[in-house]
Fold this sequence. Notes:
Helix content: over 70%
Distance between the termini: 10 Å
Structural class: mainly alpha
Radius of gyration: 13 Å
Number of domains: 1
Largest sheet: none
Amino acid sequence: MRIGLFIAAIVLIVFGAIWALQGLSIIGGSFMVGQTRWLYIGLITIVAGIGLLLFARTK
Length: 59
C-alpha cells in the first residue's frame, strides 16, 4: 500500500507540474496553454501530491 501511495503522489506532482507549466505557456500543445486557471489547478495538485507523499512517508 505504501508503494501505491508513493506512486500516486509522484503522478499527482508530475501532472500538477505539467498543468502549471501549461498555464504559464511554458509547455504548449493543448487547450490549457495560457489559461491561468490551469496554473492554479496545477499548483493545488502539486500541493496535494506533496501532502500524500508526506502521509505515505509517515505511515
